[in-house]
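agent: user wants the full assembly modeled, not chains individually. Plan: 1) parse entity lines 2) check alphabet per entity 3) run joint structure prediction 4) return tokens. Steps 1-2 passed, two entities, 680 residues total. Proceeding.
--- entities ---
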Amino acid sequence: MPPNNQAPPTRLSLILRLRNSGDLRAWQEFTEIYQPVINSLARRRGLQEADADDLTQEVLTRVAGSIDTWDPNPEKGSFRAWLATITRNLVIQFFRESNRWPVIGMDSQIGRLADTDSDSSKHAQEFDLERERQLFLWAARNVRSRFEPKTWQAFWRTAVECEDVASVAERLGTTRAQVYVARSRVMSLLKRTVERTEFDPIVDRGA
Amino acid sequence: MMVHQSCPTDRLPFLIQDELSPEESGPILTHLEACSSCQSQLEALAAEPAWWRRTTRSLSGMRVDGLGQLPEPEKPGCSVEALLEVNSSHHSQLYSSKAVLAMLDPPIHPEMLGRIDEFDIEEQIGQGGMGIVFRGFDRSLNRPVAVKVMAPHLGAHGIARKRFAREAQAAAAVVHPHVVPIYRVSSVPERPYIAMALVGGGSLQDHISHKGPLATEAVVRVSVQIAEGLAAAHRQGLIHRDVKPANILLDQDLSRVLITDFGMARAIDDVAMTQSGCLAGTPHYMSPEQVAGGEIDCRSDLFSLGSVMYFVATGREPFRAESPFGVINKITHEIPVSARSLNADVPETLDRIIGRLLEKEPSDRIESADELKQLLTEYLAHLQDPERHAEPRVKATRAARTKVFKRIGWTLAAVGLIAVLSWASFFAPANRSENRNHNNAGDHDMREGKEHHQAEHHDERRNAEHGDADAHN
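--- prediction returned ---
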């Protein structure tokens, strides 16, 4: 069925690979995953598309410039939190410097951008959620081509769209056992792909 | 959930990995069709329930067509190469220069960056793994200085700071024309720094990078000076530990070189090792015993100097690899190609001197900086006036000697073999009669072959003699 579902041999965390300057693939992965995260957060905070693009660029550039100093000590906070903070600070700075606050929902926007702890933690949560989405999307894109379309559909319809296994099996013209096997195979590789790029373990927030 | 005895539980991991033959998987699939226990088991093996939940939650909102086609990735608004570049340029600096500037007192004059004690800080002239170097001016003594302010993350590290001060004080005690003089060492926790003489001509690293390798005489002239400076430090028991082209500074008119940063590598390593478990800075010039993390002595500096000389003579480091780890591996295991093979202008003697410094085993190296200085001084004299000064003789490297010994060994063996055969053929008639007496007829063919062989060698010898005779005529 799957042509090749072996996980990549190394499980060096992405952050170590980013520090090994010259690792183009690590930086590609990093950009593919985090660029949409930062961009979407900036847009949600009311930045126009072009501004959001600039801001994203700025955040990534700062990461590139200071990843070597970032202390991977979990007590000092996760990498995600660090990235979220940079993003947030730059968004605030953007509005402060450009002196143009978003027009829509102005009051609430200013309230949300206030430099308070509650805003900060809310922002971090939002960041985590978006990151999780982009991370899985990125992994799914990478994994999908490694499986036959039927295998992938069996996984997608049952595991993502929560369709009933029996009906999916019937529609794909296969057995239920095959659907279970198919989605387990995809899931197994997806998990390993996500794990490989995670900077730090995610605390599952429950279903 | 009930696990039946007939459940093929131990086969399920292989089923996920697709490692079963169709004959094996057939019955299992039949079983799986009906056994809900095995169905759950299979999914738990693929990933924990939390992973299934995360997957559903993260991917369910995607706009996906009926075939599970995923949205295309957004086009990168940011070039990955640009990020890489930013990262590499920051790679060796583990701090921001802003943080260091914040440590200065406000400037008196608006064109200055700030002040530290009696020094006016004028501008940043360099940045390394250890800190930032500023050009400053000593108001009390009315002279320009270089002020090296230790990076905040190093200063905050008590052991590193103390070591920094200790090494700097030890280095300050080395007064020598080829060692950068240190004027002041301050180890106050807020901003540890060293003030030293300002050397105007940039580093040997910059010089070679811009202008390419030096000519032989210049290589030797520079190396004598480094050896002298190291010898002076070694006499006081001070090991440099980080001899590299970036730590060799050139005087304004490029006629004199001065060594800087004695012992500093140690202070940084303390922090780098504790923070990331690896060494800071470039490993290109480290000695094998240094990368092995063992005890090192003055001879480690000699190895590094050998690498510096190699670089100065060829424009390339002797041990090059894609990653620091690759470099370390080569330093430990590989004998670099000779400098002479990279740059044909490098004379045999210089090549040998470099080779003798790059010996893996410290006891195989030229013994001391003093001895090296002697050797290079003689060599320089020879280069400048070959008529009056003989070229010093330099022992070949261990590897080259081993090679020669091997060659000599083979030659001796070959000569010996020919001699024995010739001798045997000389007495061949006698042997033959003996053989005839003692051996039976079954050996006849073999003997024939042997005689034939001997006769050939006999001819060879005659030819050789003949040739000799020709040569003598």
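agent: reporting back. Residues 9-54 of chain B form one domain. Strands of chain B lie at 114-116, 119-127, 131-138, 143-150, 182-186, 193-197, 248-250, 257-259.
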